[in-house]
Amino acid sequence: MVRRPTRSLAALVAVAVLSTTMLSCGGGDDELVIYSGRAKNLVSPLLERFSEETGIAIAVKYADTAELALLIEQEGDQPEADVFLSQSPGALGYLAGVDRLAALPGTVLEDVDERFRSSEGLWVGTSGRVRTLVYNTDLVDDTDLPGSVFELTEPRYAGQLGVAPTNGSFQDFVTVMRASTGDDETLAWLEGLVANGSRTYANNTAILQAVSRGEVPFGLVNHYYNERQLAEDPSSPTENHFFEGDLGSIVLTTGVGVVAGTDRAEEAERFVRFLLSEEAQRFFSQETFEYPLANDVEPVADLVPLGTIDVPRVDLNELGGGLQRTQELIESSGLERS
Amino acid sequence: MRATGAEAAVAGAAPIAPTPRRRRRAGRPPAALVVVSLAVGALFAAPLAYLVYRNAVLGADLPRLLTSRATLDPLGRTLVLATSVTAAAAVLGTALAWLVTRADLPGSRVWRLLTPLPLVIPSFVGAAALVAGFAPGGLLDALVVRLGVERLPRVEGFLAAFVVLTLLSYPFVLLPVASRLASLPPSLEESARLLGRRPRNIFRTVVLPQATGSTWAGALLVFLYVLSDFGAVSIVRYDTLTRSIYAGRLFNQPQSIALSLILGVLAVAVVVAERIFSRRRRVITGAAARPALRVPLGSWKGPALALVGGTVGLGLVAPVAVLGFWAVRGLVNAEGAVSAVAADPGRLVEPALNTSVVGVVTAVVAVAVVLPVAMLTARHRQRLADLSNAMVVGGFALPGLVIALALAFWVRKVPGALVLYQSFPLLVTAYVVHFGAQGLRAADVALASVPRHLEEAAQVLGAGRWRRLATVELPLMRPGLLAGAGLVLLSTMKELPATLLLAPIGFETLATRIWQANAEGFLAETGLTSLVLLALSGGLTWALVIRRADRLS
Fold it and tell me: What is the mean pLDDT of residues B83-104?
């Protein structure tokens, strides 16, 4: 009576191991290995389309953008990954900085405005997301909306704003601010947020829910989080406010780079080209509510046109200290502890 | 039914005997046991060795870090949180374990199943669900406004972190204590009762001391779990050391690595201190040959039900209600391709299967791997065994990301190991290294409570080492080992960072689906997938752990 369950457990484990080994014999040598920091829900239909159209078999690892960049760095000159699809330019800039990205051909790069790609030709933007101020329409009058992100340190917004300082998009935004206004003014703005009692949240999703609940009236997020919130909960009293011609509504790119040392460079480049094709750009516009960056595809109707948004050119490699310096500024402002 | 050697021996022997205080040395340990234990210790030392190496290469200024307020303040908060959650979880877990196994609590079998389940809720989901449920403007707010409450307090800071982590981690204490109490011989309590002791008195003087070892074992796990948690503290915005480690993981690696090392060294120090302290404790050995007694609660039945029901209500029902609300709301409003899973829940079948398989495989492997270390420590008490033990247990305090990166690193350094990269065996290894502590703590306690004289009797009767292990020790340790396996199972089923980085490409679990959905704001999918994870872990815990452990009685 004691022995039988042990034996059946052993059998169960044996079956389990066998079935899993069979299930997981995905990653072979004949596939293009894509590390994607972009969520499966968002991009997998597009990646499958690439595979169907080109006949190139793909294997995709989905995980956090920053952590995939760490993994690619650790894979060194024997990379498992062939292509890196990143949610932010920061992680691509980091990999470029540690020489883990291969140069892209000029013909691929020129499809995209030079503001949205690496100046060394190591990565290229695939879609744009705009920073916005999401607000609760029950708590905020249109007349109370700020004209510039710099107004958020004024007393009338005391205790009214939610930010996510550990979030990659927020950090990219602060990096752009450093490039346009300098470190001193950026630090002053961050310290102004702290002095103003701004509230910090874990990520964009948490900010959006807090604004929707009315816990905090304003939040700095990327534009598409509110689109998702409204899709699931049409009664959510949340709306995006775009800052016209202001740093507050800059475009942050998602991007793609080919991993240095890949033995599938040709397929990898075809993949990059595919992401910039009209078909893929239309997908980003219509399925993920993002800004297309190539082939003159238009964004969905309710987004402000890209032309009216201020997009300063920022080169992470030229910007002193890059993202590490940005993090140090955020850290020393005390925002993460407020 | 044929009685096993253990049952026959127990039936004829005095069932309980305190171990003498002096150190026991049962002769020289077999060489194979020493070698295996050291190899296991070395495997579990891999993450710390990685941190030491990386720290040396990156050259962070450790003395400056150790004296800066930016390190000391979060470190202090980490310790305060870990200590208070540990104390609360130890009390709550022990009380609930006793109520569900030894008291005449109405519906105790159902409670026995439900009380361990909060452990499987990923901490970021649990925290987010409690915030959505209890924060101002949340689901509960709409109800209490009608009762005259103006505004609920914000769910944030120390108190929120304390409540969330206590609710999610008390099962670390509950499972080992419950299995210990269920397998205790009833004779002592019977004697106490015959001598006219009152139930409350019996609980304090007879039952509680027998559970102490298991309570300590679980409490240490709670402490280490809180040290490593990032999900809950980040959602409720309590700034601990893991926040700094996480924030700098890509762009400030020297600091991130150095802080991880500090966390790892702290964990090992705590484990060693606990071991020294636990040596002084009297271990009561014994094994049950008959079902445990159920104590009549009398007028305490109401408060006892309120405690069990309240804990399950807050730790399980409340998150489930919020997750269910998200799922239903999203399904009702589903717009086209917003969320593929909400539209087609069939897509969860493969992740659910993967989750079950890695959970069960890891649980079995983890217990098997740590068993030699437990035997060496408990039976022979060698310094080297203690070191291996500390390495195994300390691994639980490191963030999962560190474990994943460490294994990805060593697989490339060790000749010939590269074939394992992103393979199923490496993934299971990562889980075992991360969660082996849970199996080891349970095995330590289970082994310490096996009466020595039974093994000695078997030896005198001519039984060989393997025969003694198979017929005396393992059957007696079974409830304890099952509890340890149950903890590893639940922890593995919700594991995230190592799964994301080390799993074979395309291998998805329910936890990775939940993370993806939540990160991108797909709440319906977060809710639906979390509910599937909860149901699945409930089923597996029942079928593989609780039912088997209870079969003894």
Answer: 93
Q: Which residues of B270-279 are buried (b: 16+ CB within 10 A; e: fewer)?
A: bbbebbeebe
Tell me the HSE value of B390 on the side-chain side, using a 13 A CA sphere.
Answer: 21
**B36: confidence class by pLDDT, cuts 50, 70, 90:** confident
Tokens 């499958």, located at residue:
A48
Q: In B478-504, which positions are buried (b, 16+ CB within 10 angstroms) versus exposed (e)? A: bbbbbbbbbbbbbbbbbbbbbbbbbbb
**Prediction ipTM score:** 0.86
Enter the DSSP assignment of A296: T
Burial of A308 (0-12, 13-18, 19+ CB in 10 A): exposed
Model confidence at A46: pLDDT above 50: yes
Angle of helix B452-460 relative to helix B5-12, nearest 10 degrees?
110
Tell me whether residue A295 is exposed, middle or buried, using C-beta atoms within 10 angstroms of its C-beta: 0 to 12, 13 to 18, 19 or more.
Answer: middle
Residue A162, H or E segment? strand A161-163
Give residue B338's pLDDT band: very low, low, confident or very high (50, 70, 90): very low
Tell whether A200 lies on the interface with B, counting CB pairs under 8 A: yes
Distance of alpha carbon B28 from alpha carbon B38, whole angstroms:
16
Among partner residues A206, A213, A232, which is closest to B235 by beta-carbon distance? A206
Q: Which residue's structure tokens are 């309120």?
A: B306
Residue pair A326/A332 in contact (Cβ under 8 Å)? The answer is no
Q: Using a CB-CB distance cutoff of 8 angstroms, which residues of chain A are in contact with residue B512?
A: 62
Per-residue pLDDT tens digits for A89-122: 889 988 998 999 999 998 888 888 888 888 889 9
Q: Does B539 touch chain A (CB under 8 A)?
A: no
> A96-110, A172-186, A304-318, B220-234: lowest mean pLDDT where?
A304-318
Per-residue pLDDT tens digits for B390-420: 889 888 999 999 999 999 999 998 888 888 9
Give, as one character, the DSSP assignment of residue A117: B
Strand partners, B234: none
By DSSP bridging, strand A161-163 and strand A32-36 are unpaired
Interface test with A, best of B251, B513, B526, B548 (most A CBs within 10 A): B251
Distance CA A335, CA B400 (A): 26
pLDDT range class, residue B550, cuts 50, 70, 90: low
pLDDT value for B51: 94
CB B388 within 8 A of CB B44: yes
Residue B105 pLDDT exceeds 70 = yes
Q: Which residues of A143-181 are buried (b: 16+ CB within 10 A; e: fewer)?
A: eeebeebbebbeeebeebbbbbbbbbbbbbbbbbbbbee
Mean pLDDT, rounded, of chain A: 86
Report the distance separating Cα B425 and Cα B45, nearest Å. 18
Q: Which residues have C-beta within 8 Å of that of residue A107, sequence separation ≥ 6?
A: none
Q: What is the pLDDT of residue B9?
A: 41
Token code pair at residue A319:
């910007």
Contacts of B551 in chain A (CB under 8 A): 1, 5
User: What is the band of B342 on the pLDDT scale with cuts at 50, 70, 90?
Assistant: low
Q: Which residues of A touch B419 (CB under 8 A)?
A: none
Question: Are A228 and B338 in contact (CB < 8 Å)?
Answer: yes
Q: Provide the pLDDT for residue A145.
A: 95
Partner-chain contact A94 B500, CB within 8 Å: no
Chain B residue numbers with beta carbons less than 8 Å from the beta carbon of A84 are: none
CA separation, residue A146 to residues A177, A218, A236, A300 (Å): 17, 11, 22, 25
Task: Say whether residue A28 is in contact with chain B using an 8 A CB cutoff.
Answer: no
Query: 3-class DSSP state for residue B286?
Result: strand
